[in-house]
Design a protein that fits this description.
With 112 residues, this protein is α+β, with helices and mostly antiparallel strands. Helix content is 46%, strand content 20%. It has 3 helices and 5 strands, in the order ββαβββαα. It binds zinc ion. Zinc ion binds next to loops.
């Protein structure tokens, strides 16, 4: 999962460097409002914690696919069969990402 927000001046996604798993976690780390620096145009913007949105990290899903492929090859070499595990691992990784982003996005902080 990655945390992103949109730059007001160039409309590019800004990635928030944080390992917060939920919105309250992010609020605890950064406060209700915090400054973000756009990597694209360099503008510094102030964002409320509710303006941050979680997205699935495609990199992690790709890693899941890679592990699935390796598991399939290993099964093929050892047992001469390809189990469903090659398919199950990427789906598990994908599901975990979807679940994590949903958990983050569905919880909003009460604005003061
Ligand atoms: Zn920008």
């Amino acid at each position: 999962m990655k945390l992103v927000t949109r730059c007001k001046s160039c409309n590019k996604d800004i990635i928030i460097k944080s390992n917060a798993a939920t919105r309250p976690d992010l609020q605890m780390q950064k406060g209700d409002e915090f400054k973000v620096n756009c990597f694209n145009c360099g503008k510094i913007d102030k964002k409320h914690v509710n303006d941050i949105k979680a997205e699935a990290n495609n990199m992690i899903i790709l890693i899941g696919v890679a592990i699935g492929v390796i598991a399939s090859i290993t099964l093929w070499v050892l047992f001469g069969t390809i189990g469903t595990i090659g398919l199950a691992i990427p789906i598990l990784f994908w599901y975990q990402q979807m679940d994590a982003t949903k958990g983050f996005n569905s919880y909003m902080i009460k604005r003061k």
